[in-house]
Request: fold
Amino acid sequence: GAVGSDVLVALDVSHSMSAADIEPTRFDAAKQMADALLSQPSANRYAVAAFTTNLLPLAPLTSDREFLKNVLEGIERENILTKSTNLMAVLEGAVRILKGADKPVVIFSDGGDGRNFDREIAFAKERGIRIYFIPVATVSGAKLYDRFGNLLKDGAKHMVISYRNPYTKTLAEASGGAWIEEFDPAALAEVLASHATTEAGEASQPGVHLFVPLMLFAFGLFMLTTMRIKGVWILLFFIAYPEFSHANAMAVWYEKKGVEHYQAGEFAQAAAAFEAEAAHSEDYRVAFNLANTYYQLGRFDEAIVLYEAIKTADPRFKSEVYYNLGNAYARKEEFAKADRMYLNSLRLHYNKAADVNRRRIAEAKKGYQLDNTMSKKGEGEKKKGKAPKPKPRRHRPPGQKPSTSPRRRRRPSSRLPRASAP
Reply:
């Protein structure tokens, strides 16, 4: 049958790719060219990654073109926090992703500022990496601006102008690949297929075909629906875990489902999703989300176990954990413990709701009962003759509207505790 290659497609998402010497921007042009390549009919399998100082794997090797196009569409340059272009990171990533003796890598980039690529050339030759470099910048270059629209200047107060890096031509050609100034996606797809590392149908290997495409499709849908809004934490996730794995993808997927159910008020389904996520993740944010969900279900003892197990050096976050513990103890009418938790929260970081809830439980100890419904205007509002029901606090940036979503905060990796029965 037809033969093809396993290929890594890497997009430069550094700050210089925002330059507009190629319309609408270098980054948008690179995405369009990559999309054109992935759309070509061939037996090639592609992996997709973005890169700056690190390589950010976004899709593992697959022949599912629709999935790859969806992943590509979800990449947003604005979500990247670093500015440098590190081509060595791409080559090192290629070794992890491509297992054949011949490793073709397609790079869409302006090339950064490097002039000497001897180290990269030696590495590529030693590891069998062929670099096909598509320069996405003009010879005349373009000015760069910061996110506020101000001209970027160097230490000497001179304007920063980014040009096409001609030294990347030496890198590409020395590796046995090509420097492609006139991009022809059909011709490039044919050249890549000539490496002949993959036979048509190879993706159907027993034990891989049935699970991986389903997992990848789910993860692809997740990226499409959330990348533009929460792209920062997704990309930081991949920086922390540079090698894509099934466990990581499934943890992200279960978290997405848990948040969806939580936002819809379907707390039993949310708890099931977060519990499934706990089997794939050791991140304490899972414990926090699950504790919030147990609280909403009235499973206060289990929520308390999880809240108390969370260890963090972040005083703001620990303050919120104590606040939620106070709410849970208040709902159990253990007012002394609730007051102590609210006080711990206030000592770490002041928030008005904790102060108000301390007064409410003081009133409750004098005979008031906690209300079973939330005030429409939110936490801490007093209803006549009753104290309001405490609710788990979720940090929101200034100006953001209240949300019923549980807090989703990246925590240092630690063993996730299991909730015990009440």
User: Anything to note?
Assistant: The first helix runs from residue 26 to 38. The radius of gyration is 26 Å. The longest strand covers residues 55-62.
